[in-house]
Amino acid sequence: MTDHSGEIGSVLVVGSGLIGTSVALALRGHGVDVHLTDRDPAVASRAAQLGAGTTDPPDQQVDLAVVAVSPSATAETVAGLIAGNVAATVVDTAATKADVLRDVRAAVGDAPHFVGTHPMAGRERSGPSAARADLFVGRPWVIAESESDPLSMQRAHRLVELCGGVAVVMAAAAHDAAVALVSHVPQVAASLVAARLAEGDDAALGLAGQGLRDVTRVAASDPDLWVDVLVANAEPVARLLAELRQDVDDVIAALYDVGEDQDWGRTSLREVLVRGNAGRARLPGKHGGRPTPYAVVPVVLADRPGELARLFADAGRAGVNVEDVRIEHSPGQPVGLVEVSVAPRSRERLVSALADLGWVVHD
Amino acid sequence: MTDHSGEIGSVLVVGSGLIGTSVALALRGHGVDVHLTDRDPAVASRAAQLGAGTTDPPDQQVDLAVVAVSPSATAETVAGLIAGNVAATVVDTAATKADVLRDVRAAVGDAPHFVGTHPMAGRERSGPSAARADLFVGRPWVIAESESDPLSMQRAHRLVELCGGVAVVMAAAAHDAAVALVSHVPQVAASLVAARLAEGDDAALGLAGQGLRDVTRVAASDPDLWVDVLVANAEPVARLLAELRQDVDDVIAALYDVGEDQDWGRTSLREVLVRGNAGRARLPGKHGGRPTPYAVVPVVLADRPGELARLFADAGRAGVNVEDVRIEHSPGQPVGLVEVSVAPRSRERLVSALADLGWVVHD
Fold first, then answer.
1. Stretch B56-70: mean pLDDT, rounded?
2. Which A-chain residues 43-72 have CB contacts (< 8 A) with chain B?
3. In Å, what is the CA distance from A15 to each residue of A163, B137, B317?
4. Half-sphere exposure of A276 (CA within 13 A, CB side)
5. How high is the mean pLDDT of chain B?
6. For B210, which of A95, A281, B37, B222 is 20 to 30 Å away at the CA?
7. Do B255 and A241 touch (CB under 8 A)?
8. Which candidate from B185, B203, B255 shows the least CB-CB separation from A196?
9. Who has greater pLDDT, A188 or B127?
C-alpha cells in the first residue's frame, strides 16, 4: 500500500546509471524497498548485483518513482509513469528543470504528482559501477517550485534527506539560469580550451602544468550527455556565452592595442582579470558553504611507502583532523611535498607537533 | 674568481619573490654562494632570513645572475647586468622569451653571455615566503635557443639541473606559442568564466561544485603579473583567442539553432565537445610525462582524527606507495570518501589488503 505520511517505503528507480544507482544504494541503506529498471536490462542487473535493489517489477504502486534517464528522454519517461499510475509521486533528476516541467505538462496536463528535482552531484565516470551511496552527501539537491501536491513535495524532500543531500527549493527558471552559470558555461569553456590542445604539438603540451589540467578536467566528460544538457538549457547558456564572447572580444582588442596605446590595453586587460578574481572569491568552499579558510601546512616527505601514514599518524596523535590533502609528488626525486589542509585553529598545533617530530614543515 | 668549467659557485639572484627565492633555496641546498637583491630591500631580507642567501653584494663577478623580476622589467634588468659586467652569465626567468631577447639585443647589441630561460613552475601565492626549494623539481624549464656562448648555455643547463628541473631547449617563438596554448589562454578563459560569477546571485553560487572550482582556480592569480605576461605575448595569445571566439560563436549559433534544426545544432555542439575530449586526452600526467594511468581506489572513512593515518598505515604495510589522494569530505556527516591513487599494478593488492582489514572499499 502507498504510504500517505510522506514516508518512502518503496521506490522504482528508472535508469540505473550513475545517478539512479547511487540513489538506489542510498535508499537501500535506509531499508527502502528498491526496484531497478533500465532501457538496457543488463545495466539494471549490474546495479542489482551491487546491492542497489531488485530488478523484479513492483507488484503494486510504489511510493516514489525516481527518473534518472538521459535528459532528452526524461519528460516522456515521467509522462509515461504518470499515465501508468505506477507511483504515488514521480521525481526526475535531469540537469534542467523548465523544459522538463513544460514537456510533462504538454504531455499529461497538470501533474500534481510530479516534482522536478536536480541533485548537484556527478562524476566524470558514469554507469552503475561508478555509483556510490554517498554521492549526494552534503551536496545541494534542487527541488523545483511547482504546483505539486503537498504529499509529493514531502516525498521529494524525504528522498533528498535519505540520500544525505541538502534540499534547495528554487523556481525552475532560476535553477536553469544558475546551472548555466555554475556548470554549463564552465563546461563549454573547459571544452573550448581543451579543443585548442587537440592540434597543439607535443613539445607545447609537454610544458603543461597543473593549471591547465584543472581548467580542462571537466572537458573529459561524456559529449552525448552534454549535448542533451546544453540543448535543454540553450537560451540561458547562449545568453551567458554571448557575454563571455564580448569579454573575449575586449581582450583581443586590448592585446592588439598594446602596441599602440599601452595604457588603454593594460587597463582593459587588468579589468577582466580583476573581475575574474572577484568572481572566483565568491565561490563557496568545497562543502557548499562560504569559502572555508582552511590553513594549509606544506610538509616535505620522502617518496616511499609509509611516509604518508607516518605523517597522518603524527597529525592524528596531535589531535588534528586533516580536512584535505594535496600531494605534489615527483618520482625519481628523493622528496615530495604534501599540502595538508586543517582548520585554522589547529594550524599552529600541527606545525609545532610535526616540527617536534622531525618533519620539514614549510611554514 | 669566475669558474670557467660551467660549474656554478656564486650566483646573484635579482628579484627575491617566489621564483627568485625558490631558485636561491635550491642553490643553497647545493652549497652555492647566493647573493639576494630586490627593488624592495625588505623583500630580499625576508628571503635571506629564510636561508636563501645573503643580502651582502658580491665582492667580485659572480658565475651567474638569475633575473626573476616582473616581466615588464626583465629586459632592462638583464641589459643593466650585462652592461655592468656583474656576472659571467645572465639568465632571465620571464614567462615570454621572444620579447626579452629582442629588447635585450636592442639595448646592448649581441649578448653572448645572456640566456633566456623560463621555469614552468609557479603558485597562486607569491613572495619569498611562498618559495620552496623543490618548486622546480620534475618541472620543465625552457632554455631558449640563442647565440649565447657555449659556457653560458652550460651554466643555464647546470642551473636547471641544480634546481631539479627538466631542461627543454626550444626556439623563443616556439616557446611563446606553446605557453600561449598551455598557460596564457587557459588563464584568460578561467578569468572570463570566473568574471561571470562576479554578478551571479548567492543562490546560484550555492550550487557550485568541484568542476567550477577546478575551471576557475587559476582565476585567483595576480592581475598585475598577468597583464605583463599577456602584453608580452600579445600576438600568440590573440591568435588563439580568435580561434576560441570562433568556437564560441559556433556554439552560440548551434544553441539558437536547436529550436529549428535539432540535428545540425546537436552535431555542431557534439563536435566541439569531442574535440575537447581529444585535447584533454593529450595532456601529460602530473609529472610531465604521458598521462599516467593511476588506478583510483575509493575508500570510505569516518570523519575523525586518525582515520587517514590508519588508512595510510594499512596501505604502507601492504607495501603500496600512494601516488595521490583526494578527499571528498562532508562535515556533519559520519563518513567521507577518500580516493587513493596508486600504480595500476598495486591496485588489487591494496584493495584486498584494505578489505581484509575491514575498510569499505568501493571497488
1. 97
2. none
3. 17, 47, 41
4. 32
5. 89
6. B222
7. yes
8. B185
9. A188
